[in-house]
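Hi! If you just cloned this repository, the fastest way to understand the data is to look at a raw example. We've pasted two of them here, unedited. The first protein comes first, obviously.
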Amino acid sequence: MLILQRKAGESLLIGDNVSISIVSVKKGQVRLAISAPVEVPILRSELLAVAEANTDSAIEGADPAALLALLHGGDEKDAPEGKDKKGDDTV
């Protein structure tokens, strides 16, 4: 893993055709501008985790509350108590 420090207005290059520019840094948030060819997928990591969980749930019949917990940055174990897979109340 490479760790860099960049300021607003600075950029970095990945390979020959991907450029990431720092647009702004405010109150702990960084805004990025990414320039890449159309064939290069760009996806936020938390959305990838949710997509994988969604695919798994279609196969396994996972609890929808667990999927929502993943979407909001939690983990399946952080899902609120409620109904189990059979529809019975959990204790």
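Ok, and the second one:
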Amino acid sequence: MAEKKTIDVTDSTFDEVVQKNKYVVVDCWAAWCGPCNMLSPIVEQLANENPEITFGKLNVDQNRKIPMKYGIMSIPTLLYFKEGKLTDKTLGALPKKTLESRLEKLKS
């Protein structure tokens, strides 16, 4: 099994992670969420394949401030940041190919 490339993000570490890294994708998830559990291994694969992007995981049950700030009403939601600014958001357990094209857009 490949080593875990995602980092755990919390309400208190979120801003630092987003500001410190050029490209950031945050997976907003919960343990009880079936689609989140389907998306999780895809996010891990993408993290391994895109070392220039920081991938974070934010548990919405343990962190309420950030989901409220970004209007997250359903999970999984991926938030895409470039140089500290939110550039994109995807909802649901999307196919890997769809997410790869979003990452290309993020880096362009």
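That's it. A detail worth noticing about the second one: The CA atoms of residues 26 and 56 lie 5 Å apart.
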